[in-house]
Amino acid sequence: MKVTEHLNRADKTLLSFEILPPLKGKSIQNIYSVLDPLVEFKPAFINVTYHRSEYIYKKRGDERFDKVFIRKRPGTVGICAAVQFKYHIDSVAHIICGGFTKEETEDALIDLSYLGIDNVLLLRGDASKNERDFIPEPGGHSHAVDLVRQVVDMNRGKYLEEDSIQGYKTDFNIGVAGYPEKHFESPNLKSDLKHLKEKIDAGADYIVTQMFFDNQQFFAFVDRCRAEGITVPIIPGIKSITAASQIHSIPRTFHVDIPEALIDTIEKCTTAEAVKKAGVAWCIEQSRELVKAGVPCIHYYTMGNVDAMRSILTEVF
Predict the structure, then answer these.
(1) Domains in the chain: how many in total?
(2) Considering only CA atoms, which of 225, 265, 223 is closest in space to residue 246?
């Protein structure tokens, strides 16, 4: 079932999870160990992130260096299929611009379609760790809206080869990202919203937000979207703080604000367990307020923190 079908049929707030593929060399059991304790809460769908290759320099015996490409977290397509097969829960495959050509993207989408996975979340992705700015792969896309257009074309039976006959029409439900506090590269909120509307106008079906810790930021974001004529469902994405270091690492990595009240609470904690409990309590209150506001679904960035997620879901759902 498509994500938007889940949302349209629901008479209450749904929940969903986001998981990361295990590091190369780890087994699918790493995924099952996260999901087994959580599926009892009946998530409507489960997102699986997509990761680009990175390059490193390895020293050779002659004192020179070789540029070597490595992909630390492969397996998104296979994990999506495994999730649907094992748990009978719809999976959402992330597809990104960074590190992939249009042809590689098309091949991944064809594989997903063959496997009966008809939900995708389309993202530009981050710059390579070795690059200051985002640089598209030669022959790849520069922006998420270009990915949206490619998937919409496939849904219409149009593939990359210009001289090909009309192809099989895929049936992907398309999600895109939204940023309540704006994307860090956008000069202002108005510009960021303009780019979001371009993705919707190109054919995206729903929005999932970047994580946030202040619900007022989300509510204001929804109001701005509606005023701009964006009518698709907007799913809030949230995460629980589980370590004191995250009040510094999360803003640096994801470019979001941590509310002063949450920072004050975390800084007063004297043990790691106290920090985790404080983060869980904050996420519970966030979730309850969002449910009360009637959001269609809450999307949890699990980051593998099973115990914290169970504590939250037990109180909210």
Answers:
(1) 1
(2) 265
Give CA–CA dist 64/2, Å, rounded. Answer: 51
CATH for 244: 3.20.20.220
Q: Report d(CA 147, CA 176) in Å as an integer.
A: 10
The pair of structure tokens assigned to 263 is: 């920072």
Q: Rounded to whole angstroms, what are the CA distances from 50 to 17, 75, 95, 301, 305?
A: 15, 8, 6, 14, 19
pTM for this prediction:
0.92
pLDDT, tens only, 130-168: 677 777 788 899 999 999 999 999 999 999 986 666 789
Domain that holds residue 275: 3-316
What is the SS3 assignment for 67?
strand
Query: CA 171, CA 122: separation in Å to the nearest integer?
Result: 15
**75 vs 262, higher pLDDT:** 262
**CA–CA separation, 94 and 97 (whole Å):** 10
